[in-house]
Design goal:
This protein has a 5-stranded parallel beta sheet with strand order 2-1-3-4-5, sandwiched between helices. By secondary structure, the chain is of the alpha/beta class. The chain is built from 5 helices and 5 strands, in the order βαβαβαβαβα. The protein has one domain: Response regulator (Rossmann fold, 3-Layer(aba) Sandwich), CATH 3.40.50. About 30% of the residues are buried.
């Protein structure tokens, strides 16, 4: 939570349009939104800012979301941050892989806004 008691959400997606769309959806609900366009940037921001929830895309160049999640979970400073995978990949194996690595939720693209809000409400309250 930030100083105004608003949950802080880190959105990680290599496509800036997706980041902006998600930012706009989250600001409607008064979340403070941080943005990252790569796994490396996400890890840095997570360690520095300790967001309440990370919305993490899976398919990114250089470091995919699975690797980012594994690194978050193996780092003492970030291991307890809630992570929701957000991906166009919606197969059972994709969801199982994410949950096995320690994801707290999984949302498929295109995002169903109410489903996103319900999950975030659950994770931030």
């Amino acid at each position: 939570m930030n100083s105004n008691n608003q949950p802080v959400i880190l959105v990680v997606d290599d496509i800036s349009t997706n980041n902006i769309l998600m930012k706009n959806l989250l600001r409607v609900r008064n979340y403070e939104v941080l943005l990252a366009q790569s796994g490396i940037e996400a890890l840095r921001i997570a360690e520095e800012r300790k967001p309440d929830v990370i919305l993490l895309d899976i398919m990114m160049p250089v470091m995919d979301g699975y690797e980012v999640l594994a690194r978050l979970r193996s780092n003492e400073a970030t291991k307890d941050i809630k992570v929701v995978m957000v991906s166009a990949l919606g197969g059972k194996i994709d969801i199982k892989n994410a949950m096995d690595l320690g994801a707290d939720g999984y949302i498929t693209k295109p995002v169903v806004v109410q489903k996103l809000y319900d999950l975030l409400d659950k994770l931030t309250n």
